[in-house]
Design goal:
408 residues; mainly alpha; globular
Length: 408
């Protein structure tokens, strides 16, 4: 049991810290090293490692990412921004538009992608007007995180929950709708209060964007296939099968070299998931996972649903900010089915692991994408300034989510 537990601990440490002296690792690279070490050092049989990889998850992710990649190539996200942003007349309207717009797009097209595409659009829009962009970048990241909680395709951890919980697509979104709606209202209120002085200033001029080049055929095909996938999921279709069929049809019907679109698929994320499955299988194979599960179970109260939800939320919030939300959800895969009302607890896991990303700048990949893309253009999103908004928004939205999911 000792060696697998040590490999597991070292892997999660590397995922959490990433800046270990002598090593330059990102999360996918750290998880790959952990998976290899689980076989070579800890003795996990290679056949067990192969069997550990959940192909449903990888196929589901791949299908969604192919569709989103074609939308990127076709200029869809810039086109949407070009239709929305020029319509705002005040800074308050701009703040709310960024928050709600990023939330709506993230619910359907994955929050990381939305932040990746819209951050440069915001900077190109606001910097020439001499509007300080940081408040709006914060709103972009937080809206993307909150909005992504609405559907099982909004973020990677929701995809895990959707597959493992067995919750129907429509049921998941129906139950998360008031959670997300209230969360966005809380975020809007906090941001409008926090930045009230800046937002009270008049707009220095109309928001102008260069007309984005939209490949109508590619975008139209991708949106049609996406709509068809949504209908199939709402009718109870298999999440991974529908996703990969839609992705394959997009490649077939795109009538262009698929290379640029496939290059935009987040292959490192697939590596991250696959490697983590191996690490977790090694832990289960050694018996150490059962001990960790018992520790997790001791934190919840089977006869007190509200207390259980609070305990799960606290655990997810801490783990998501320490080791990232996907590894946090993986850790609780075997725990949640043993809890009272596991369907409700899966929703709590989804909500808390997602909303926890707003706590600190390092809390989610969406936040880091916004900060890194802004830094590349000379705009610094500070840790302290982000936390001024993130801490109250995270705590208030988590409280709201627990209230709705346990009493609703």
């Amino acid at each position: 049991m000792t060696l697998p537990l040590l490999v597991f601990a070292a892997t999660y440490l590397m995922i959490s810290v990433q800046h270990i002296p002598g090593l330059l690792l990102n999360r996918p690279a750290a998880s790959l090293l952990g998976a290899v070490a689980m076989v070579v050092v800890a003795g996990l049989p290679l056949g067990e490692a192969y069997a550990a990889i959940d192909l449903d998850v990888l196929v589901f992710l791949l299908g969604i990412m192919i569709l989103v990649a074609y939308l990127e190539v076709g200029g869809f996200f810039e086109w949407v921004a070009g239709r929305v942003l020029p319509r705002v007349r005040t800074r308050r309207q701009l703040m709310v538009a960024v928050l709600l717009g990023s939330a709506a797009l993230s619910a359907l097209f994955v929050n990381d992608t939305v932040c990746l595409m819209l951050t440069p659009v915001l900077l190109v829009t606001l910097v020439p007007l001499r509007i300080r962009p940081v408040p709006y970048l914060v709103a972009l990241a937080m809206g993307a995180n909150i909005g992504s909680a609405l559907t099982v395709i909004g973020n990677p951890q929701n995809m895990l929950v959707g597959l493992w919980s067995g919750l129907p697509f429509a049921n998941f979104s129906w139950r998360m709708a008031p959670v997300v709606g209230g969360g966005l209202a809380i975020a809007a209120a906090v941001l409008l209060i926090l930045y009230r002085r800046e937002l009270a200033e008049p707009m220095p001029g109309p928001v102008r964007l260069e007309q984005a080049t939209l490949d109508r055929r590619v975008v139209g095909t991708a949106l049609a296939l996406f709509a068809g996938a949504l209908v199939a999921w709402l009718l109870g279709g298999s999440l991974p099968l529908v996703a990969i069929v839609a992705g394959a049809l997009m490649i077939a019907l795109g009538r262009q070299d698929p290379g640029p679109a496939l290059a935009k698929v987040d292959w490192p994320l697939l590596l991250f998931f696959g490697s983590l499955f191996v690490v977790m299988r090694g832990l289960a194979w050694s018996g150490a996972a059962d001990a960790l599960d018992q520790v997790a179970l001791s934190a919840v109260a089977p006869d007190a649903p509200v207390r259980s939800a609070v305990s799960v939320t606290v655990a997810m919030t801490l783990l998501s900010n320490l080791i990232s939300n996907v590894p946090a959800v993986l850790l609780w895969r075997n725990v949640v089915p043993t809890l009272p009302d596991p369907e409700r607890m899966w929703l709590v896991v989804s909500m808390s692991s997602t909303f926890a990303g707003n706590l600190l700048l390092m809390g989610s990949m969406a936040n880091l994408i916004v900060a890194e893309r802004a830094a590349a253009r000379g705009v610094h999103v500070g840790f302290r300034e982000y936390a001024r908004a993130g801490v109250p928004i995270c705590l208030l939205t988590l409280g709201w989510g627990v209230l709705v999911l346990t009493l609703g």
